[in-house]
Amino acid sequence: MSNAARLDLNARARISAVAAAAPVVDARAAAAAQQTVSRWPGYAPTALHSLSGWARGLDVASLTVKHEGSRFGVGSFKALGPPYALAREIDRRRAAGAAGPFTAVAATSGNHGRALAWGAKRIGCTARIFMPAHTSAGREAAIRARGAQVVRVPGDFTAALDAAIAEAAKDDHILVADVPFAGRDDVARDTVAGYSVLGGEILDQCRGALPTHIFVAAGIGSLVAAIVARLRLALGRAGPKVIAVEPLSSDTVRRSIAAGEPVAIAGEARSLMDGLVVDVVSPVVWPILRDGLDAALAIADDQALATLRDAARGAHGDAPLEIGETGIAALAGAVLAARDPSLRAALGIGPESRVLAVACEGVTDRAVFDTLVRGDAAGAVA
């Protein structure tokens, strides 16, 4: 195995994945999310990009990227989850007699806040977004451009989340997060249901030739859990292997899978894959990951950066593909797993494998992306 990667296989995978998913996103919740989101103006399944040149070099049957950069013009998969959860929570509050106006609140390193700002503006409410101090100016500007207020918070994402939680205690303020709040987890569950739309698209787009392996970036774990849930609801114990990919510096899903229980990351982590830097897996989705995720792979920033550049330059004879520095994690993990003999053997990757990577974002900060492609990684991360 590469010295710049750590892999843990999940011995519990598929034992009771459907039962574990049901309290979070069952078939009914997934169908409701699909029906609602598909009616939003501008909805279309995001594209699949075949990287046949790369696949030949890796000795796999196919390598495909599902690219979330075009999702509702927001630039990431997040446009599926937080806006859906916000709309559902406003409906619940109005049904209980609250008149509003409502303010959506969140912590973000970029994509979550941008999506929530878009979703709030779409339904006519305000948004107040808390960001770690180190997050790029371009990401802040993108959130402000969608009408939200932005508050910078000293420290890491956890500090920003703490500030958002405090703000959400105010009347008619709604915390939209992947974690429980005030003893409730319905907003977090609705967020996962929104993300499950992506899993449904994979099933539809790959009908007749499903992938054998799906690589998905993991921060707090909601996206990969949503895909696992959607696949297991449709296919039971059969179907593709799903592998979470994280930064080595922030591999809470991998450590939790290895331990059989949630494991927190101590200290303030940093990574090129900044949107994946968290300190603990979401308790809402942990049962799905525990019982349904096949493996978790932690990779180094160098691997992510090399893959980002190769994709952007069309280095293997494929059409150039621009993927942001967080979004590149899944493809970087897939490439490393197919290339490294020990990872390849452990995951059962071979010449007949059909590998799909979910690029969870496009280019979300053009200045940062261009700097990375040119070669000044240190300047982009600082």
SS content category:
alpha/beta
Q: Summarize model confidence as the mean pLDDT.
A: 93
Helix content: 40-55%
Order of helices and strands: EHHEHEHEHEHEHEHEHEHHEHHHEHH
Largest sheet: 7 strands, mixed
Can you describe what's shown?
By secondary structure, the chain is α/β, with parallel strands linked by helices. The protein has two domains: 267 residues, Rossmann fold, CATH 3.40.50.1100; 106 residues, Rossmann fold. The chain is built from 16 helices and eleven strands. The strands form two sheets. It has a seven-stranded mixed sheet with strand order 1-10-9-8-11-3-2, sandwiched between helices. Strands 6-5-4-7 form a four-stranded parallel sheet, with helices on both faces. α4 crosses α5, α5 runs parallel beside α6 and α13 packs across α14. The radius of gyration is 19 Å and the shape is globular. The C terminus is likely disordered.
Describe the SSE topology.
Blueprint: E1 5-9, H1 17-21, H2 27-37, E2 48-50, H3 52-58, E3 62-67, H4 82-95, E4 103-107, H5 111-123, E5 126-132, H6 137-144, E6 149-153, H7 157-167, E7 173-175, H8 186-205, E8 213-217, H9 222-235, E9 241-247, H10 252-259, H11 286-292, E10 295-299, H12 301-313, H13 329-339, H14 341-347, E11 354-359, H15 366-374, H16 377-381
Parallel strand pairs: 3-11, 4-5, 4-7, 5-6, 8-9, 8-11, 9-10
Antiparallel strand pairs: 1-10, 2-3
Helix pairs in contact: 2-8, 4-5, 4-8, 5-6, 8-9, 9-11, 12-13, 13-14
